[in-house]
Amino acid sequence: MFRRIFKDHPQSVGETYFEHAHSAFGFGTAMVGAGIKCLVHGLLPPLFTTSGSDAVRKLHTRMVTHRQRDKCKN
User: Fold this and answer.
1) What pLDDT is attached to residue 2?
2) Cβ-Cβ contacts under 8 Å for 47 (sequence gap 6 or more)
3) Contact between 47 and 40 (Cβ < 8 Å)
4) C-alpha distances in Å from residue 14, one per residue of 8, 27, 46, 61, 74
5) Could you give the CA distance from residue 11 to residue 41 in angstroms, rounded to a whole number?
6) What are the two backbone dihedrals, phi and then psi, of residue 6, each rounded to the nearest 5 degrees?
7) Whole-model pTM?
8) pLDDT in tens, 1-26
9) Using CA atoms, how far apart are residues 11 and 14, in angstroms rounded to an integer?
10) What gap in Å lies between CA 31 and CA 50, rounded to an integer?
11) pLDDT tier at 29 (50, 70, 90 boundaries)?
């Protein structure tokens, strides 16, 4: 049970539990920040016109492109 909760998924993406936690918190804070900007943009359209799409592109690069490149090194 402990292994399934704390080790299996982080290992499946090539990270330790703490590396995965750090990465997940980074993604989470980036998404919350982008979400707040999107909400502000909904109320005041001239503000944060590209913040949501910019965040999605950056997070995609970090999560998909970057990880695939790192796995090719090993």
Assistant:
1) 77
2) 37, 40, 41
3) yes
4) 10, 17, 41, 17, 10
5) 38
6) -105, -15
7) 0.75
8) 777 888 898 998 888 999 999 999 99
9) 5
10) 14
11) very high
